[in-house]
Design a protein that fits this description.
single chain; 92 residues; alpha+beta; YefM-like fold; 5 helices
């Protein structure tokens, strides 16, 4: 990972953008302190998704969603609408 000052980034932006385009990452420093990180969009998205999986917010898919959508709707032994209205009670 390359670290660069704001001044250097401004002066050589095209060079650093090419580096990121080729898969690199740039840390932007302001007076020696990290203020930003420039990464390729795919990496940011993958890192964010990986973090959500680690935190238990998401689980990785295991198949094709199309198969699930092609199934007929489930038959339930009760009415979802009646159950919802009963649960909400006086909130309406």
């Amino acid at each position: 990972m390359t670290s660069v000052s704001i001044t250097d980034l401004e002066a050589n932006l095209s060079r650093y953008i090419r580096e990121v385009r080729d898969g690199g990452e740039i840390e932007v420093l302001d007076r020696g302190s990290l203020v930003a990180r420039i990464t390729p969009p795919e990496k940011v998205q993958k890192d964010a998704l990986d973090a959500l999986v680690r935190e238990g917010v998401l689980t990785q898919g295991r198949g094709c969603a199309r198969k699930v959508l092609e199934r007929p709707p489930m038959k339930l032994p009760f009415s979802l609408l009646e159950t919802l209205l009963e649960e909400r009670g006086d909130q309406l």
